[in-house]
Specification:
By secondary structure, the protein is α/β, with parallel strands linked by helices. It is built from 8 helices and 4 strands.
Length: 191
């Protein structure tokens, strides 16, 4: 996927601008509840063991066709074509297998950034954090939100926004908030 992104960016006209938007592990520039190296609790044994357990349970649920029931809320209020894509692709064993492969190296790679973090260019950066715990311990949510606040503060043009009605699944619950932040970055200020 990184190669595809590089090919896309290489193909843009030099004068073209773009806004990078990433959610969760895809968000490490509008960062939507990103997984961040500043959220130290995710590197501990309980977090890593918990992730393995969740992936194993999700795989079993996907194999028996029940995984979608646990994420039914993701389809509420989204366009029908997006819902059809979710139904066709998102809750299948192959997705969980990919998630497991990603989990094998992701946190180790992210942890390496703790000692040598990437330097953000001088561009506007917005970090959107969820505010609800939605199934995760409150301390984990608070740590993730604090990491989002920290990440935004590292950029001279940083902005931290809290999604008041969402936990981790901001794109499904408050998509309009993400769209508003993208518009804020690409449209000139009025007045």
């Amino acid at each position: 996927m990184a190669d595809d992104l590089n090919d896309l960016l290489d193909g843009l006209e030099p004068s073209s601008g773009f806004v990078q938007v990433g959610h969760s592990a895809g968000g490490p520039m509008v960062l939507v509840d990103p997984t961040d190296e500043a959220a130290t609790q995710q590197f501990g044994v309980p977090s890593r063991v918990g992730e393995k357990i969740v992936i194993a349970v999700e795989w079993v649920l996907a194999r028996v066709g029940l995984l979608e029931r646990f994420f039914r809320f993701l389809g509420e209020g989204i366009p029908e074509d997006v819902r059809a894509d979710l139904d066709r692709e998102a809750f299948r064993p192959a997705v969980v297998i990919t998630q497991g492969r990603h989990a094998r190296t992701f946190l180790t790679e992210l942890h390496a950034w703790r000692g040598d973090p990437p330097v953000l260019p001088d561009v506007p950066v917005t970090v959107i954090s969820g505010s609800l715990a939605d199934g995760m311990p409150r301390r984990v949510r608070d740590t993730a939100t604090a990491a989002g606040r920290y990440r935004a503060a590292r950029s001279r043009q940083g902005r931290h926004v809290v999604a008041a009605r969402s936990g981790h699944y901001i794109p499904a619950i408050e998509a309009e908030l993400i769209a508003a932040e993208i518009r804020r970055l690409v449209l000139p200020p009025v007045g």
